[in-house]
Design a protein that fits this description.
Blueprint lengths: L1 H16 L12 H14 L5 H17 L3 H18 L4 H18 L2 H17 L6 H16 L3 H18 L5 H17 L3 H7 L1
Helix pairs in contact: 1-2, 1-3, 2-3, 3-4, 4-5, 5-6, 5-7, 6-7, 7-8, 7-9, 8-9, 9-10
């Protein structure tokens, strides 16, 4: 309840600070609202660390969806730093922050950085003991996409096969769409390698 109240109060503060009556009638764009929110979050040390990390991660995703990749990456790196310094026991939370950063870096075309971030995320998932988790399978898929982009098709194939093995072991109906995405990615890897027959079987 306390965290929910903190989130609510922070959002109200952001929008109040973006109200034209509070800004001498200035017409603030969504970008300005986001920038104001990000700035407040960087200094909002009175917020619960979990709430602060969640809000920063949300703002970073909005930046990303608007195509504002540089501020998205900058804020996501701050999320990661916060999780490493104040929430370090939450391995899965740190892994998710790294995964989100890797996705942004891949969109930026920084494939080497994206690979490093995603491998670090995968290591944390493994350390957390989630050997058959959907999160680990997704991390392997995302790593495979980066590897494919770098032309490392054999390594990408290995990650995708491991992701498929996780989904097959879990045998959860809710995983059907995610498993299909992995299979489609594997077909793409085979297609890139010139193995069209195997690619057709995977699609």
């Amino acid at each position: 309840r306390v965290r929910a109240e903190q989130i609510s109060r922070f959002l109200i503060d952001v929008f109040e600070n973006s109200d034209p009556e509070q800004t001498q009638g200035a017409d603030l764009s969504l970008r300005r609202v986001l920038d104001n929110g990000a700035l407040q979050l960087r200094t909002a040390t009175d917020l619960d660390a979990v709430v602060r990390a969640q809000l920063m991660q949300t703002v970073a995703k909005v930046y990303q969806r608007l195509g504002l990749l540089d501020p998205a990456a900058d804020l996501q790196r701050q999320v990661l730093a916060l999780r490493e310094t104040q929430l370090s026991p939450d391995l899965v939370g740190r892994a998710q922050a790294l995964t989100d950063l890797a996705i942004i870096q891949r969109e930026q075309g920084l494939l080497a950085d994206a690979e490093a971030s995603q491998r670090a995320a995968l290591a944390l998932y493994l350390e957390s003991g989630s050997s058959r988790s959907a999160e680990q399978a997704r991390a392997r898929l995302l790593l495979a996409l980066v590897l494919r982009g770098r032309g490392e098709l054999a390594a990408a194939r290995t990650e995708l096969l491991q992701a498929l093995a996780i989904y097959d072991q879990r045998a959860q109906p809710a995983d059907a769409a995610a498993r299909a995405a992995v299979s489609n990615a594997l077909a793409g890897v085979h297609q890139d390698a010139g193995d069209l027959q195997e690619a057709l079987q995977r699609y």
